[in-house]
Amino acid sequence: MHNAPPLLAILVLALTLSFVFGLAARLLRLPPLVGYLVAGALVGPHTPGFSADLGFTATLAEVGVGLLLFGVGLHFRAEDLLAVWRVALPGALAQVAIGGTLGGLAGIALLGLSGPGALAFGLALSIASTAVATRALEERGRLSGEAGRLALGWLVVQDLVVVLGLVLLPALASGSSEGLGLSMLRAVGELVAFMAVMLLAGRRVLPWALRRVARTGSRELFTLAVVVAALGVAFSATILFHVSFALGAFFAGMVLGESDLGHQAAAETVPLQRVFAAIFFFSVGMLLDPANLAAAPWASAAAVVVVLLGIGAATFALLLLLRVPPATAAVVAAAMAQIGEFSFVLAELAIGQGMLPAEVRGPILMGAFGTILLTPLTFRAFGWTAQGLAGQPHLSRWRESGRRPAPHAALPGLQGHAILVGYGRVGSTIAAALRRHNLPLVLVEEDRHVADRARADALPVIWGDAAREEVLNAARPRQAKLLILALPGAYEARQVMALVRAVNPTIEVAVRTHDDDEIAWLRQEGGVGLAVMGEREVALGMADFAMQRLGVPASTAQATVDVLRARMPGEAAA
Question: Which SUPFAM superfamilies match (predicted)?
Answer without folding.
Answer: NAD(P)-binding Rossmann-fold domains (SSF51735)
